[in-house]
Amino acid sequence: MADEADTKSSNKMHQGVDKAAQSAHDAIDKASQISGSSEEKLAEIAREMREQADKLSAKASDVSKRSTQAACDYTKNHPVKSLGLAFAAGAIVTALLRRH
Question: Per the record, which residues fall in region Disordered (predicted)?
């Protein structure tokens, strides 16, 4: 009888351990799935940010080229005014630097 009680007790313990192990495996599988989807989401967000950065960079480059072209055109069309503006800007910077 004592052996039979020990066997039943042992079987219940094994079943409990098996259930706990199965629960642990299920939890690990679920965590792995969540982790995998999180990595995919992060990768997608990074890809979108990179695309936006590329678009902004292209737009900034375009604005810079247009501004440079406008300045060159103005200088070609109004060389005396451009020279006068450059001289005035230099005089102002020189005066500001001498004060300090």
Answer: 1-62
Q: Supply the DSSP string of the chain, one letter for each residue.
A: -HHHHHHHHHHHHHHHHHHHHHHHHHHHHHHHHHHHHHHHHHHHHHHHHHHHHHHHHHHHHHHHHHHHHHHHHHHHH-HHHHHHHHHHHHHHHHHHHHH-
**CA atoms of 3 and 41, how far apart (whole Å):** 56
Six-digit token string for 80 = 């005396």
The model's pTM is 0.48
If one counts the domains in the chain, the total is 1
Domain with 79 in it: 2-99
Confidence of residue 29 (pLDDT cuts 50, 70, 90): confident
Sign of CA dihedral 83, 84, 88, 89: negative
Tokens 């006068």 correspond to 84
